[in-house]
Amino acid sequence: MVASVPPPAAGPLPYHLLCLLRDRGATSRAELAGQLGDPRARVLGEIDALIAAGLVREAGPAASRGGRRSTLVELSPDLRFAAVDLGASSIDVEITDGRLEPVAGYSEPAEIRSGPKAVLQRLGEILAKLKADGAYQRLQAIGIGVPGPVSYRDGVPVSPPIMPGWDRYPVRDVLAREHACPVVVDNDVNIMAIGERHGGVAHSVDNLLFLKLGTGIGCGIYLGGEVYRGTDGCAGDIGHIQLDGHGQVCACGNVGCLEAVFSGAALTRDALAAARAGTSPALAERLAAGSPVSAQDVADGAAEGDATCVRLIRDGGHQVGTVLAGLVSFINPSMIVVGGGLAGLGHVLLAEIRSVVYRRSLPLATGNLPIVMSELGPRAGVVGAAVLASDLAYGRQER
């Protein structure tokens, strides 16, 4: 995994020590003291305390630089985190070590609408199976993302439009009790943004927008190197920005939201209409064969030159670009990363989004603005969840 940037100087020293070892691997005591900028005696004392606590161990002598060789220290190889990405129709789980390298993983289809008890019970069964297979003996922490607004402070989803039965369900407390470890809960787009910044194309970018296009649409926001969640945790919920006051009814109850105009469900709806109307030979053929029409069929049809499929993707990209253009002029990010299931629509989608953003945003804000696809792809969520879990276990204090 790509190493992260050095931690900021402010904050508890043990947390920053552990993060340096997480992101850089085995490091000498001398280098740690130099990088952290704290008094050498204090840093060495904290390292000894972490060794005594079983979080860190000695890893042999450092390379010689002509004098007495310093001793390397590294994270304990026994540290384990569970990283969970709950999607609208899937569960993705990874067990990682202290450096966030994957030890084991598992994915399966799931229906978030079946409710929290059923989904979390299944998650418990998956974790039990991974434990039985030797992936871990105990977990230091769990990080989990869910596809809806989350009160980050309370660890609960709040009025999530596509998650019936989850409103105010104590996800954090239930998982912490069942697995005897601390738990952090965030929405899925935030964990994807965290993952992409930690180990993807946005590595170390301090001002970032991560656009998730899938069953729902959201935007993870990094400002000044920190995730911006807003006062109540719902910042970035751009899927419910209205584009058409007389448009389709959205899952949130309003009309004409971006998510109602272009999302996984909206694209499937429009593709099915095109198949039934016969305006798309590729989609009509799929429907005639008795197969359900999906967003992937639209992508395949566009790749084959089907004009209606290309139009559906371009229309969606135009709507997304319109919303992003406003955000770019307002926030002035240094990068936009596009991820989620609909990122598989490929270059046609990305080209349309770029075209609209570059045309409609302020020139000063777009002169050096890359708009790129996610490098981590479907792993962005679990990578971000692992980062959050390790931050929690290592003692991060939210500001």
From TrEMBL:
This protein's source sits in the domain of life called: Bacteria
Looking up InterPro entries in the UniProt record yields: ATPase_NBD (IPR043129), ROK (IPR000600), ROK_cs (IPR049874), WH-like_DNA-bd_sf (IPR036388), WH_DNA-bd_sf (IPR036390)
Q: Known Gene3D superfamilies for this protein?
A: 3.30.420.40, Winged helix-like DNA-binding domain superfamily/Winged helix DNA-binding domain (1.10.10.10)
Q: Among its keywords, does the record have Kinase?
A: yes
- State any single GO MF term: kinase activity
Give the family this protein belongs to, as stated in its UniProt record: Belongs to the ROK (NagC/XylR) family.
User: Protein name, please?
Assistant: Sugar kinase
Record organism: Rugosimonospora africana
